[in-house]
Write a structure and sequence with these properties.
Elements lengths: L3 E6 L3 E7 L5 E8 L11 E2 L1 H16 L6 E6 L5 E3 L9 E2 L7 H11 L1 H8 L8 H11 L1 H4 L4 E3 L1 H10 L3 E3 H4 L5 E2 L4 E2 L1 H6 L9 E3 L4 E5 L2 E4 L2 E2 H8 L7 E6 L3 E7 L11 E4 L6 E7 L3 H11 L3 H8 L10 E3 L17 E3 L7 H27 L4 E5 L6 H11 L3 E4 L5 H12 L6 H8 L2 E5 L3 H21 L4
Parallel strand pairs: 1-5, 5-15, 9-12, 16-22, 22-23
Antiparallel strand pairs: 1-2, 2-3, 4-7, 6-8, 10-11, 13-14, 16-17, 17-19, 18-19, 20-21, 23-24
Helix pairs in contact: 1-6, 2-3, 2-4, 9-14, 10-12, 11-12, 12-13, 14-15
């Protein structure tokens, strides 16, 4: 029997799926681990925890059936440092670690912002890998002098599985060392940032087999967003992936390499060979609703039901979702959230309505920028916890002015990784065939015609608020 296995090395757990060649999920498994925050703004994990969790998930899934191909995905941007013996030198610094503001400014100064964006498709952000390595060089020289290998989180798991030092172009795009247009490490950037080229893993296309684990081909895989986009069928231009998770993402496949000159959205290699993607990221999407629940009480279903009692715009109440700073479009770690336009008439439901709408306006900021480098989208494929709310999807569809479609399986990156594993094993000829065979679209949520005009007006107010409310410390 032909089965495919996908692993997603996430921030809180390793998730795994055993999938049939027609996209049926045969088994699921998950093993969690802790997150360490030794100082404010730091986020670290022990890579050994990822490996222990991977072993547990693999054991459970392989007991459920034979495996023909295996694919990897995981949290992006993390820094894993190994010595010459393959031993971990320090805890991994994660995507949500914000200690490297000075290093980001130094990188843009060394290379020049315009040249950096031209080569890598991105500006220097604290979440990326390159600033983390520069931080280690400056502040932990005793660690830096022992470096032999630099890996991303999922690629450390690959090393433990296969013994190979390898990565894929999609995940490598988030390091700030990759020439994204050329789909190869940038000699110019690597030299400018004092990185020994020998430290970096070999780079492969996502469906390419990079080694084997007990005879099973292991695909290069992809970062969580690229693999997740494959898992919802965004393997080509036209449909866009809209993720309503803790963070919010708008992700569009591109035919060719293109970047925003100011680096306001990400330009990365896609998990589809010869393709790229544009991606906007907001840091607090469903996380904003979770925050409101923590301070105002109630269950999520209650908040959404109360929000449904208010008309669009909630009588002038506007929410800025910058609770943890913002990436797209502001690239501002000091941006802060707010409610404006409060009146005595507003209640908890009005606050909830404003949160749902404010997140949608943030997603529209990303959509407009992504569309500017890759053409107008035709349809959104929506996933994440927020996608379970009919009201929130109607709001988002109306603000984005885009039909939103659910898919049958919302397994995200692990599902996409399994499909990539199927290509590596020869079950599918390419990623397009895997998507056609396994991704099953469901119902479409259309924009509410009577909401589009009011939301366009409110969106203008939303955009005008940021400069006045920007925090400076």
């Amino acid at each position: 029997m032909t089965n495919l296995l996908g692993l997603d090395v996430g921030t809180s757990s390793v998730k795994g799926l055993l999938v049939s060649p027609t996209g049926d999920v045969l088994a699921r498994a998950e093993a969690s681990y802790p997150l360490s925050t030794p100082h404010p703004g730091w986020a670290e994990q022990d890579p050994e925890d990822w490996w222990r969790a991977t072993q547990a998930v693999l054991g459970e899934l392989r007991a459920a059936g034979p495996v023909t191909g295996l694919g990897l995905s995981g949290q992006m941007h993390g820094l894993v440092l190994l010595d010459a013996a393959g031993e971990v030198l320090r805890p991994a610094m994660l995507w949500n670690d914000g200690r490297t503001g000075e290093e980001c400014a130094e990188i843009e100064s060394r290379i020049g912002l315009a040249r950096l964006v031209e080569l890598t498709g991105n500006r220097a952000l604290t979440g990326f890998t390159a600033p983390k390595l520069l931080w280690v060089q400056k502040r932990e020289p005793h660690v830096h002098e022992r470096i032999a290998h630099v890996l991303l989180p999922k690629d450390y798991v690959r090393y433990r599985l296969c013994g190979d030092f390898a990565t894929d172009v999609a995940d490598a795009s988030g390091t700030l060392w990759l020439d994204v247009g050329a789909r190869a490490w940038s000699d110019e950037v690597v030299a400018a940032l004092d990185v020994d080229r020998a430290w970096l893993p070999s780079v492969h296309e996502s469906p390419e087999a990079t080694g084997t684990f007990e005879g099973i081909p292991v695909a290069a895989g992809g970062g969580d967003q690229a693999a997740g986009a494959v898992g919802v069928g965004v393997d080509r231009p036209g449909p866009v992936s809209v993720v309503l998770g803790t963070s919010g993402v708008v992700f569009a496949a591109l035919d060719g390499y293109a970047s925003d000159p100011e680096g306001r959205v990400h330009a990365f290699c896609h998990a589809v060979p010869g393709a790229w993607h544009g991606m906007g990221v907001m840091l607090s999407a469903a996380g904003s609703l979770a925050w409101l629940r923590s301070v105002a009480g109630g269950e999520f279903s209650e908040l959404v039901e109360e929000a449904s009692r208010w008309e669009p715009g909630a009588e002038g109440l506007t929410f800025l979702p910058y609770l943890a700073g913002e990436r797209t479009p502001h690239a501002d770690p000091f941006a802060r959230g707010s409610f404006t336009g409060l009146s005595l008439r507003h209640d908890r439901g009005a606050l909830a309505r404003a949160v749902l709408e404010g997140v949608a306006f943030g997603l529209r900021d990303s959509l407009d920028l992504v569309a500017s480098i890759g053409g107008a989208p035709l349809l959104g494929r929506v996933s994440g916890g927020g996608a379970r709310s009919d009201l929130w999807l109607r709001i988002c569809a109306s603000v984005l002015e885009l039909p939103l479609q659910r898919v049958e399986l919302e397994e995200g990156a692990a599902f996409g990784a399994a499909l990539l594993g199927g290509v590596a094993a020869g079950v599918f000829s390419d990623v397009g065939e895997a998507v056609s065979a396994c991704v099953r679209p469901r119902e479409v949520v259309e924009p509410v015609a009577s909401w589009i005009g009011p939301y366009a007006d409110q969106r203008s107010r939303f955009r005008d608020l940021y400069p006045a409310l920007r925090s400076v410390g």
